[in-house]
Amino acid sequence: MITWDILAGPLLALLIGYALGAIPFGLILTRIAGLGDVRDIGSGNIGATNVLRTGRKGLAAATLILDAAKGAGAVLVARWLWPGTDLERIAAIAAFLGHLYPVWLGFRGGKGVATLTGILIALAWPAAAVFAAIWIAVLLLTRYSSLAGLIATWSAPVTALALGRPGEALLFAGFALLVLWKHRANIARLRAGTEPKIGAAKA
Buried (b) or exposed (e) across 81-119, using 16+ Cβ within 10 A? Predict the structure, then answer.
């Protein structure tokens, strides 16, 4: 029989993870800076890459760090509250979904790369290190932020498998599929040759 005592932990982990993940730092920071609604420029996204299109590199960096921190924070809070359980993975899933689909923004959130970075740091730091190295390398070679994020994201399940952690590999593959889905417009632009590059002059 399923009782409240059994459900309480997972439900609370979901709530904490989602509440943290759904904080729209890109939107908050740009509004505090007096730049209006970041959703009205560029891709309309609330992530760091779109914040960078305001011309404020510091705000973009802060958005990247805070979006990663909320992913890591959800895992670490769950680990502290329920040590030795799998509830940290539930919190990670909830935080990721909260970032992608925040209820207070009409379920239109970010694309998940920065938040996934934080989750990887907390759950499997070697995967995070490989992720970061690949993201930086692809970005430097192509200057396509979207392509760098997509390729780096798929390195996570591969790294987890190489480390002999199939459970985390499956989890990271699920995250990667969601990142792929959220980048479908970017993929179309990459194929058409119209995806904007980081640092490119505005038309």
Answer: ebeeeebbbbbbbbbbbbbbbbeeeeeebbbbbbbbbbb
